[in-house]
Amino acid sequence: MNKKAAVVGAGISGLYACLLLEQQGYSVDLFEKSDVIGGRLNSQKKSGFILDRGFHVMQTGYQTASKVFNYQQLGCKPFEPGALVIRPSADGAKVWRFSDPFRRPIRGLLGAFNLFTSPLNLLRVGLMRLTISRVRDEDIFLQQSQTTLDFLRSRGFSEGFIQSFFRPLFGGIFLESDLRTDSRMFHFVFKNMSRGDMVLPKDGIASCAQQLFDQLGSTKLNLGVEVAIKSERDLQFQGKTLTYDLIIKAFAEADKVETRDVWTVYFSAPKSPLKANYIMLNSAVNQQTNIISHLAVPSDIQPNYAPPGMALVAVTVVGEDAKKQSLVDADSIEQAVLKELSQWFPDEIESWNTLDVQHVKQALPECVNIGQISHDSPQLNNTCGDHTTHGSVEGALISAQLVVTESLKNAP
């Protein structure tokens, strides 16, 4: 007898759930209310540029994702390990380069003497990396819970270094401005950043979702449709009640999950403002009038992101930082970003043109209560998505594994 399943939601977790169900002999009906697959991993083309929905990278250090995605087939290329750090000023911006001393030892050594921070802070980064690298991924979430800020302070980092380096980097990753994210999530991300690369696929972040979808065989995709889940086995679709052996909900209900938002401003530029393939962190983001967390130039990594002879610049603004200055619409965000960038690149900004101002309202789930971050006991109830584990591509994939395994135990 043919086994049938339904998956509602065609984001990364829903697509992976379909693949896992197919591997168990199920034919799957996949329902998605929007007109595209991929959820937040989406891209659009505009004026010859590829604009991801929010600035995204893939982490090759993630173990599950590395099994699911073929990075070589996606044409992925890496950012340089490390970061540029800018200290903007009306008198001229100062830029420092920090390279990963484990993978770029010479550049990393030079970075220890560039006077941005004390060598002790850099030594503590190395020691922290060694300590965290020894902990298995599955054991990270069993450790003691505290905020990322409290953890960094406990490791002896100076307040200035925390605010000028960790806050723009991990505040931009976690999409919150206080480093209140549980330290176990920090450990998980920091470890995976250390053992892998931040990469961009050739054809935009949407190609990752497409590659996953292309692995499906017996799944029937229904785009732009609304369904109502009536029970564990029944859903209503186009006025009919359909019965399945199991139903998986691969989305978060907006009114039941607390989320974080982010603004991304894309610019076209005649050339890249950066001299190397790093992400640029804003060391002054903690100052009251600043909102830019970090800046990247995707076309430096993947020339396909921009037309020939042009550069694509992506600026990230954490939603909380914008709200603190009462910036709540695209026009005010754009003007604030342009004003701030005029201290970063005063000789170049006049030649830039705004391509898009994006506001992703449900960019990441709130990640403070560590009870919600467990590889062993997620919030199941036939539901998957990063809101049931932790806010990352890896979390989304792990959630699909867990919910499929649990659902199969209860399937007829």
Structure commentary:
This protein folds into 2 domains: 3-41 and 205-256 and 377-410, FAD/NAD(P)-binding domain (3-Layer(bba) Sandwich); 52-200 and 259-365, Polyamine Oxidase, Chain A, domain 2. It is built from 13 helices and 19 strands. It has helices spanning 12-23, 63-68, 105-111, 119-133, 137-140, 148-154, 159-174, 183-195, 206-214, 298-301, 319-324, 330-344, 393-410; strands spanning 3-8, 26-32, 43-46, 49-52, 58-59, 77-78, 82-87, 94-99, 198-200, 219-223, 227-229, 234-237, 240-243, 246-249, 259-269, 280-282, 292-296, 311-318, 353-365. A 7-stranded mixed beta sheet has the order 8-7-16-17-18-15-19. Strands 10-2-1-14 form a 4-stranded parallel beta sheet, with helices on one face. Strands 5-9-6 form a 3-stranded antiparallel beta sheet, with no helix packed on it. A hairpin with a 4-residue loop joins strand 11 (227-229) and strand 12. The longest helix is centred in the C-terminal third of the chain and has 18 residues, at 393-410. The chain is globular, with a radius of gyration of 22 Å. Residues 370-379 have low confidence and may be disordered.
